[in-house]
Design goal:
The chain is built from 4 helices and no strands. The protein is mainly α. It has a single domain, classed as Orthogonal Bundle (Arc Repressor Mutant, subunit A), CATH 1.10.10. The longest helix is centred in the first third of the chain and has 11 residues.
Length: 66
């Protein structure tokens, strides 16, 4: 989750979400950054409109436990 949080933090700050930025955020947070996981995240986010994804996730119904 920390990798996604790093990408979201960069996006919210108006910074480019790239390998260097994600690694910098993780390192600043004291997380040992895994280069392959960072590359996979950046590849998965290629072409994704983060604002649109956030708004769709916020509008998704939440299941309530019985």
């Amino acid at each position: 989750m920390e990798y996604i949080y790093a990408a979201l933090l960069l996006h919210k700050a108006g910074k480019k979400v790239d390998e260097h930025g994600v690694k910098a955020v993780l390192t600043a947070a004291g997380v040992a950054a895994d280069e392959s996981r960072i590359k996979a995240l950046i590849a998965a986010l290629d072409g994704v409109n983060i604002e649109e994804a956030i708004s769709k996730a916020a509008a998704a119904p939440v299941a309530v436990a019985a």
